[in-house]
Amino acid sequence: MNEDLLNELTEIDEIHCVLKLQQEAEEYLKSFDWCLKIKKSWYDNEFSSYDIIGVFLFEIEPINETVDDFVWVIVGDLPTVYLDKSVTSGKEALEIYCDLMEDWIDNVKNGQSLEECFPVPNEPTAENADLLKTRIELIKEIFLTE
What is the pLDDT of residues 4-29, one digit of tens each? Predict the structure, then answer.
């Protein structure tokens, strides 16, 4: 196989992964009654990687004017999170995501209440906290080091 064909296959694989992540993010948003419809979406390829993590900005039709019309969604091989439109970039979304997950990890490891944490759908065990910590450290290393 020539190199051009290999690069094309890699691009096709990447597009397939992005579309899968986008579908997962859309299904996540549609699971909330405050999201009536998804109007448009954007993929931040600078802070995303294949099927590991996807950072998306969605324009939605909200249920009422108290709900933001733009929502960030971070999805992938980790807990999915949505963030409001006060977030101004994919990088900021990823930084906030890491902070939210680290808060959950710290509370789990210290045996503290998770009531004030962003809801993580994993059992609050030390093992799950360690697994999530490994992923967050990797995200920081790959995307957030300057």
Answer: 544 555 788 888 889 999 999 999 99
CA distance 2 to 100: 45
**Torsion angle, alpha carbons of 51, 52, 57, 59, to 10:** 40
Name the burial class of residue 97, with classes exposed (0-12), middle (13-18) and buried (19+) by CB atoms within 10 angstroms of its CB.
Answer: buried
Over the stretch 45-97, which tens digit does the pLDDT of each residue have? Answer: 899 887 789 999 999 999 999 999 999 999 999 999 999 999 999 999 999 99
pTM of the model: 0.89
Report the alpha-carbon distance of residue 72 to residue 80 in Å, rounded: 11
How would you label 9-18 residue by residue, b for 16+ Cβ within 10 Å and e otherwise? Answer: eeeeeeeebb
Token pair recorded at residue 22: 């986008």
Pick left, alpha or beta for residue 76 (phi over 0 → left; psi -120 to 50 → alpha; otherwise beta).
left
C-alpha distances in Å from residue 67, one per residue of 30, 57, 137: 14, 15, 32
Residue 35 in tokens? 């999201």
Distance, CA of 137 to chain centre: 15
